[in-house]
Design goal:
single chain, mainly alpha, 2 domains, two-stranded antiparallel ribbon, 2 strands, 3% strand
C-alpha cells in the first residue's frame, strides 16, 4: 500500500526525477524483500541442516529455489498491490474531479438563478420607467408634429394688410365723415382680431401650437 501510494504521488510530476525516485523505490523494495527471503530461508536451513552441513551464506541462498520463490512472490505481490492502489487513487482523483465539477456547476446554476431573481425584481420598476418615457416620447412627438407661429412676422404682414385697408378706404370714399367712420371701424376690428388670437404682444418671438389628436 505504501509502495502504491508513493508511486502514485511520484507519478503526478512527469519528469526524470520522479521516474528516478520510482526506480529507487522498486530497488529498495526488492532489497528489502531479498533480506526477508534470506532470513526465512536461513531459518529453514538451520532447522534442516546436519552436522556436516556448511554454514548458511548468500551463495547457498542463491541456489535455493525457495529463496527466489519468496523474493518474487513477495515482490510481485508488492507491485500488484501498489499498482492496484495507484489505479484506485487515480480513479478516486478522477471521481473527485467529477464531484468538484458537478459542485461548481451546481453553484453556478444557483448563482445564475439568484441573478435571474434579482433581475426579475428590477423588471417592474424598469417597465414603469419605460412606460413613463414612452408617455414623454408621445408628448414630445405631438409637440414635434405641431408648428411654431411667429408673432413678429405675422404682425408685419398684418400691418401691411391693414395699411392696404386704410389706403383703399381713403382712395374710394370722398365723404370725410364716412371715411373716418370706416377707418375707425377698421382700427377696432384690427385690435379685436389681435386680442382674440393673443398675438398683440410683440415680445414673443414665436408661439408653439400643438396638434390635438
Amino acid at each position: 500500500m505504501g509502495l502504491g501510494y508513493l508511486v502514485h504521488m511520484f507519478q503526478k510530476h512527469k519528469n526524470w526525477l520522479s521516474f528516478f525516485k520510482i526506480g529507487i523505490l522498486f530497488v529498495v523494495t526488492f532489497i528489502f524483500d531479498a533480506i526477508l527471503a534470506y532470513q526465512i530461508e536461513k531459518k529453514i536451513y538451520d532447522i534442516e541442516k546436519t552436522l556436516n552441513s556448511p554454514e548458511f551464506n548468500v551463495q547457498i541462498a542463491f541456489t535455493k529455489a525457495e529463496f527466489w520463490g519468496i523474493i518474487f512472490a513477495g515482490f510481485v505481490v508488492y507491485i500488484i498491490w501498489g499498482l492496484v492502489f495507484d489505479f484506485i487513487m487515480k480513479e478516486y482523483d478522477n471521481f473527485d474531479k467529477i464531484k468538484t465539477f458537478i459542485r461548481l456547476k451546481r453553484e453556478g446554476i444557483k448563482n445564475s438563478e439568484q441573478k435571474i431573481a434579482n433581475q426579475i425584481e428590477k423588471l417592474n420598476p424598469i417597465k414603469e420607467e419605460i412606460s413613463g418615457i414612452e408617455g414623454k416620447i408621445n408628448d414630445l412627438q405631438r409637440t414635434i408634429d405641431g408648428f411654431v407661429f411667429s408673432n413678429k412676422h405675422y404682425l408685419t404682414y398684418h400691418a401691411e394688410y391693414v395699411k392696404g385697408w386704410f389706403l383703399g378706404i381713403s382712395d374710394n370714399f370722398d365723404n370725410l365723415k364716412r371715411r373716418d367712420q370706416l377707418l375707425s371701424q377698421c382700427t377696432l376690428e384690427e385690435k379685436k382680431h389681435l386680442e382674440e388670437h393673443d398675438i398683440a404682444d410683440e415680445n414673443y418671438e414665436g408661439r408653439l401650437y400643438k396638434l390635438i389628436n
